[in-house]
Each structure stands twice: as C-alpha cells, then as structure tokens.
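Bumping with the actual sequence this time:
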Amino acid sequence: MSQIPGNDPSPTLNYHSPTGDSWEEVLKIAKAQKLLLWVILGNIIANVSLLILSSAAKSAPATVQLLFGIGLVGFILVIVALQIAALVNLMRAMKMGIVSIIILAIGSVLSCIGLLVLLIINQRATTRLQRAGLKVGLMGAKIPDGPPTN
C-alpha cells in the first residue's frame, strides 16, 4: 500500500513541540499534571473536612472519637500517598533526574515546603505545556484530539 505524498496518516509521529517533546510526551505531561491537580484538590477537601468533622466529634463518646481519629489518619495517609505518586508521575513525565524526584517527593510531605514543591513542579509543567501549544487552565491542560498546529 503506497502513501500519497503530503498525506501523512499519523501527524502525531512527526510532531515535536518547541520544547523538543514528542506529542506522546506532551500528552503524558498533561495527563500527569491533571492527575496531580485533582489529588491536590482532594487533599484540600480532606483537610477542610478534617477541620469541620473534628470539631463536631468533640462531643462524641471516647470510643467514637478514637475510631474517627484512626479513620481520619488512614484517609489522610491515602491522600498523601496519592499525592506523592502523582507528583512522581509528573516529574517522570517531565524527565527529571532520579535524585531530584526523590528529594522533591520527600520534601512534598513537609508542611510549607511540600506546598512550594507542588507549586514549582506544577508551574514547570504548565510552562512546558504552554510552550507546546496547549491551553492550560485551573485544573490542567485541555487535551486536544491531536497535536496543535503551529
């Protein structure tokens, strides 16, 4: 089967963003960033819920408070684990070095440092996606069906 010149059936194979990334690499970054942003939103909701529910549980019996506390700690640990996994996934998609990934993943669980790590990595991903021609909103890049035409 011969191809007609200029009629490439797969334009994604020939796409390279201004950052040098292939379309598949740009998609990995966009999806990883979107996942990280959803996990961060989940973390915010979990922390707000923790504040609201912990004040309501003060009037409950000691056994209920203990069970509530254990459940809450378990829930927060799951959210933190998901956040670290999403952060590592994004940094791997951005082809960061393994030492950087390990240091930043550990730093992401520290209180104020963790927020800075998340903001810096998210901003790097946003800049890279914008240079690749994608529009990035509050919850990540809008992923088109095919690569943007320049």
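The tokens above came from a reply further down the thread. The CA atoms of residues 66 and 113 lie 30 Å apart.
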